[in-house]
Amino acid sequence: MFPMISAICWRRKSGGEPPHSKGGLLMIESVTIPTEVQFMRKILLAVIVVLAICALALPSLSQVEIKWKIHDRNRPLPPVVDPGTASTPDATGRAPSDAVVLFDGKDLSKWAHKDGSAAKWKVANGYAEVVATTGNIFSRQAFGDCQLHVEFAEPLPAKGTDQERGNSGVYLMGLYEIQVLDSYDNKTYADGQAAAVYGQYPPLVNASRPPGQWQSYDIVFHGPRFDASGKLLRPARVTVFHNGILVQDNVTPTGPTEHGERPPYKPTPEKLSMALQDHGDPVRYRNIWIRELKPAEGEK
Ligand code: MG
Question: Which helix (H) or strand (E) holds 152?
């Protein structure tokens, strides 16, 4: 190897024959490789072997394993749930049997204002309506990871423009707002329209119905986790269907939602009250239910 390299170098430099060639044929002599070079060759070989082993191991590390055998009849069966019924434009549906019903059209006893006082929003004809200046309402029960169903109707006739038209909001853990807005033929900034994770993620599409019609949000939310020192272990994640259309696909909030800023995560308990926003517009709500989620198999 070394005589060959020296021969090539000789040709490039001088254009003539290298000292160990004869008639264009390279004459290879036995060469003693220095100890240092032999050592380096061993190290290089060892590195190549280690890399090869890692390359072979990687595919198996990237696969997902389930602790149960396939079709294992000893595997526990999921609990049976009555799925309830869907709402129609004229009638409120029925919640799934394992859901916590937060508003069934009769009263707001599951809700309170920030100071703990009874919710002052109007309740009539099976819906609750925001009463301006009374303030946000908070669920008396705290929730974290959840599936949440909310129905709302924007004021008819429509009044105002941009962010001042039918503005309200669903706050997961009271911190992460899924925007409620009349976004039917009403332009505003993308990350502030209906079904946006406010100030962070616009919806994938605008699936808004006209004002006065009942609409729905179906939300899957996984709250953030922090260690004992307050370090963020995992951010929140949220998926939203607006009127049955996927509009937020497992997005990762950057932290709590705010107007004009994106504050970072701060340590919170795993469960907090969820909230509905009083933004001064008489938005109506009905059929609000929530299902608490346990970690999926293999998930922390
Ligand atoms: Mg809002």
Answer: strand 146-153
Residue 2: C-alpha distances to residues 7, 8, 26, 37 (Å): 9, 10, 12, 12
- CA of 16 from ligand 1 middle (Å) equals 83
Question: Domain range holding 40?
Answer: 4-62
Query: Which residues, chain by chain, have CB under 5 Å from ion ligand 1?
Result: 167, 169, 179, 277
How many A from CA of 168 to the centre of ligand 1?
A: 4
**pLDDT of 7:** 40
Residues 218, 183: Cα–Cα separation, whole Å: 17
Distance 107 CA to ligand 1 centre (A): 23
Same domain, 167 and 230: yes
Taking the C-alpha atoms of residue 262 and residue 78, their distance in angstroms, rounded to an integer, is: 39
Please state, in angstroms and rounded to a whole number, the distance separating the CA atoms of residues 239 and 218: 8
Ligand 1 centroid distance, CA of 180 (Å): 6
Structural domain count of the chain: 2
d(CA 268, CA 234) in angstroms, rounded, equals 12
> Which of these, 292, 281, 3, lies nearest to 153 by C-alpha position?
281
283 Rama class: left (phi>0) / alpha (psi -120 to 50) / beta: beta
Which residues of 194-258 form beta strands (DSSP E)?
214-222, 225-226, 232-234, 237-242, 245-251
pLDDT tens digits for 232-286? 999 999 999 999 999 999 999 999 999 999 999 999 999 999 999 999 999 999 9
- Band (pLDDT 50/70/90 cuts) for residue 5 is very low
Do 133 and 269 share a structural domain?
yes
User: Are 42 and 184 found together in one domain?
Assistant: no
Cα(132) to centroid of ligand 1, in Å? 13
